[in-house]
Design brief:
The protein is an alpha+beta fold. The chain has five helices and ten strands, in the order βαβββββββααααββ. The protein has a four-stranded antiparallel β-sheet.
């Protein structure tokens, strides 16, 4: 998308989770994507107009990219040449971007929990989507010291605190379970136990910061986790699910060498938590 212009935009319904912004098609048509980025779980496309196209996938949203046949010999591929056709009943194609480089980017969302919005770049941090968001887990801001400061005095279970987007933005259920396991921390432990009374980081805080970064980097390299219908933009599946050490492994043996524990599951805040009771003691 970067460097390409929106030649044609098809908006096939008035809303997703929320209504599309006013004059959505008009404000995109003819504009060029100058940069593509991310904040928390939002995709951000900077436009030549000075606005930012904000995109959120919700639960079942996906972008599929058709590169106009370039992957099959017509020129340099825009995306991976190897494909696994996955996703999407065509009736759930709600937005279609036709780009000047020949690519067609389609947003497909069965449950319509995703959304799109347009916000001036100068107002982005103050917009309703980003006000109050926490630090980025893959930024230099994440450290043992930061974790300790964020969790100081909090009595909430550690896992619940890590899912609070006001503290650390973008962490999801799967990767919190995996990070806690690698750090050897019980999901029900008081969040504040990772800081000393004076706010200094404990060894646990340092281990957690390192584990979060490690898990996320591995997941990004693996293309994400395909559990039900998640797919990458070229239709291929992510494969980080094959590296899960605790998530969705209830009743199976712990994978840590020498541990005789068995993975258990508990429900916290309506979400399944998986952990090893031997490696992750309270």
């Amino acid at each position: 998308m970067v460097g390409a212009r929106f030649v044609k935009v098809e908006q096939r319904r008035p809303d997703l989770r929320i209504p599309f912004p006013e004059r959505f098609v008009e404000r995109l048509t003819g504009r060029t994507v100058t940069a593509l980025g991310r904040r928390a779980k939002y995709l951000l496309a900077d436009l030549s107009s000075g606005e930012v196209l904000i995109m959120h996938l919700g639960m079942t949203g996906r972008f599929l990219v058709d590169d106009g046949g370039k992957a099959s010999g017509g020129g340099p591929p825009l995306i991976g040449a190897y494909r696994h056709t996955a996703g999407g009943v065509r009736a759930h194609d709600h937005v279609v971007f036709h780009l000047s480089n020949g690519a067609v980017v389609t947003y497909n969302d069965a449950r319509r929990f995703g959304f799109m919005d347009l916000v001036p770049r100068t107002e982005l941090d103050r917009s309703r989507h980003f006000t109050g968001l926490g630090i980025e887990p893959l930024s230099d801001a994440l450290s043992g010291e930061t974790v300790a400061q964020l969790l100081l005095g909090r009595r909430a279970p550690l896992k619940a605190a890590l899912l609070d987007q006001r503290l650390i933005a973008g962490l999801g259920n799967i990767y919190v379970c995996e990070a806690l396991y690698r750090a050897g921390l019980h999901p029900s432990a008081p969040a504040g136990s990772l800081a000393t009374p004076t706010g200094r980081p404990t060894a646990k805080a340092h281990r957690l910061a390192e584990a979060i970064r490690e898990v996320l980097n591995e997941a990004v390299a693996a293309g994400g986790s395909t559990l039900r219908d998640y797919a990458r933009t070229d239709g291929s599946l992510g494969y980080f699910q094959h590296r899960f050490r605790v998530y969705d492994r209830e009743g199976k043996p712990c994978m840590r060498a020498g541990c005789k524990g068995e993975i258990r599951r508990l429900v916290q805040g309506g979400r399944s938590t998986f952990f090893c009771p031997v490696c992750q003691r309270p």
